[in-house]
Design a protein that fits this description.
This protein is of the alpha/beta class. It is built from 19 helices and 21 strands.
């Protein structure tokens, strides 16, 4: 009996798991131009007939010419830059494709949607293995591609765990080669998965090795440590509901300018498992808070785990919730530098937010920005909510219920309901709901934070963050500090010993020795914190 595991075995196991998630399994050679059921040429990466059928089903009110225009826009490449092409396509995915067509009343403008996000089962999900692609004399065959409505959104590259010469990073290197040799495939790519059959990691087309991370939960409630990572990733990340949710709400393109070279680098980022589940819990608790006690809770994710991006994903998804009727979001800090940092992150991710955030640097600016009837993402510091005259009541700015105040690391400044910022903030926004985000845990003795914000919505502590590799370990190194007396102090102690009476000498000396030993122990137990 042959017990050797091959790469083909790993591939078949992944396909079986995907089939359990509701994907239809197809063989690449079967649907190739020379196969028994041809659907494409080797130069095509989109299954155009399936895309056309999906658009017709999802957009029943649009005429044929409008759908054909949408298909041309999707397939057409506007740039030679791989990431820009990908970003352009992603905008079509999340915002729809603008189309125009003639009617008896003239030219009409509308939106064609590539996917049905409201009814996920209304989309077609395929998993196709050995999908040969010919491009610029390169012949490449990715192991598995996941298609939704004929579009290749996810690529799997697999390696054999039984081969000691290959690892999951061999799959990563293969993806890097694909990006150079078959870039047309990556115009449509949303997620990249690399696996050796047990270990599995996911990232995007711009992710380096550090940003390829495992998906560790299926339900969002429990970390699964004993199941193979590839199984958890397929069941937890690539099930239909989560995949479509991730694609629509949990991907951002951040453009950062290099200070030295002046060049702009675009990074495509997808939420990690802890970010994804925290955001969905926070959105749910916020919707509930608006109709109850206005306390949406506290999200505690330890420092270094991507808290700022969690807040971006949260804001981006919250603004689309129909229950909130186009809410106004106020991002509140208690320091100008934190306000600037957070505003910078949100500004770089404004496409996900579907609006540009604004920064209020004065009381007058806050009043102006809150005059709107709905919408808006406003950044400010809590100190702006102080009356011009001490002891006076802060004026009412809005009595709308669909205002959400998102507080970042500002717990202490939120507590004074007598004559402090907390009171003035609620005088200005009496029906707003509040949610807190923090990188440090709430102390057990702290009764104020839960009173203001509510209980924990989600917790991602330092232990789990270190285990996941999202933050570095913290080591406490104990060092003894040598206790020495100044020369001028020694005679006094010697004299003290000399003066002790004969009958008490032994007892007193022992007491003194014990006293100084305790002092030396206390001083010598000084711990230094060293972060590596």
């Amino acid at each position: 009996m042959n017990s050797i595991i091959t790469e083909s075995d790993v591939e078949e196991a992944c396909l079986a798991m995907l089939e359990k998630q509701g994907y239809t399994i197809l063989s690449g050679p079967d649907i190739a131009e020379d196969g028994p059921h041809p659907e494409r040429t080797y130069h095509e990466v989109v299954l155009v007939a399936r895309l056309r059928n999906a658009l017709t089903k999802i957009n029943p009110s649009l005429p044929k010419e409008a759908l054909e225009e949408a298909i041309k826009k999707v397939i057409r490449t506007d740039s030679q830059h791989l990431v820009l092409n990908n970003q352009h396509f992603h905008k079509f995915v999340t915002d729809g494709i603008p189309v125009e067509y003639n009617t008896k009343d003239g030219v009409k403008h509308n939106i064609a949607w590539l996917f049905d996000f409201n009814n996920v089962e209304n989309n077609e999900f395929l998993a196709i293995n050995q999908f040969t692609i010919l491009e610029d004399r390169n012949n490449r065959r990715p192991d598995i591609l996941l298609f939704v409505n004929g579009l290749p959104l996810v690529i799997f590259e697999l390696k054999n765990i039984a081969d000691e010469a290959t690892t999951v990073w061999s799959a990563f290197n293969q993806i890097e080669t694909y990006k150079e040799q078959i870039p047309s495939l990556f115009r449509f790519n949303e997620l990249v998965v690399i696996s050796d059959g047990l270990e599995a990691r996911a990232g995007t087309i711009t992710s380096d090795k550090e940003r390829f991370i495992p998906w560790k939960t299926v339900s969002g409630k429990h970390i699964l440590k004993n199941a193979p990572q590839v199984q958890v990733l397929i069941e937890g990340m690539l099930n239909k509901q989560v995949l479509m949710d991730l694609i629509r709400h949990f991907i951002v393109f951040e453009a950062e300018k290099s200070k030295k070279e002046g060049t702009v680098t675009i990074s495509k980022k997808v939420a990690a498992y802890h970010q994804y589940h925290a955001v969905n819990k926070a959105v749910k608790s916020t919707i509930k808070a608006i109709t109850s006690d206005q306390r949406a809770g506290v999200v505690w994710h330890t420092q270094g785990s991507g808290k700022s991006l969690i807040m971006v994903f949260y804001a981006g998804k919250l603004v689309l919730q129909p229950e909130l009727e186009n809410p106004t979001l106020i991002l509140l800090t208690d320091r100008n530098d934190l306000d600037d940092q957070l505003f910078g992150t949100f500004s770089r991710c404004h496409e996900l937010l579907r609006q540009k955030p604004e920064q209020a640097d004065s009381r007058e600016k806050i009043k102006e920005l809150l005059k709107v009837s709905s919408g808006g993402i406003i950044f400010t510091t809590i100190q702006k909510f102080m009356p011009e005259e001490r002891g006076k009541q802060y004026p009412l700015l809005s009595n709308r219920k669909n205002i959400v105040v998102i507080v970042d690391e500002a717990h202490r400044s939120q507590y004074d309901f007598i004559d402090g910022f907390a009171k003035h903030l609620r005088d200005a926004l009496p029906h707003a709901s509040f949610i807190g985000f923090t990188g440090t845990p709430i102390e057990k003795a702290d009764k104020s934070t839960p009173a203001v914000f509510g209980n924990y919505v989600d917790v991602y502590d330092i232990t789990q963050a270190v285990e996941d590799g999202t933050t570095v370990k913290i080591f406490y190194e104990s060092r003894l500090a040598k206790l020495e007396l100044k020369p001028e102090e020694r005679p006094h102690i010697d004299k003290y010993f000399e003066d002790i009476t004969e009958q008490e000498e032994q007892e007193q000396k022992e007491k003194l020795k014990s006293k100084w030993a305790r002092l030396e122990k206390v001083v010598g137990s000084h711990n230094r914190l060293r972060r590596i």
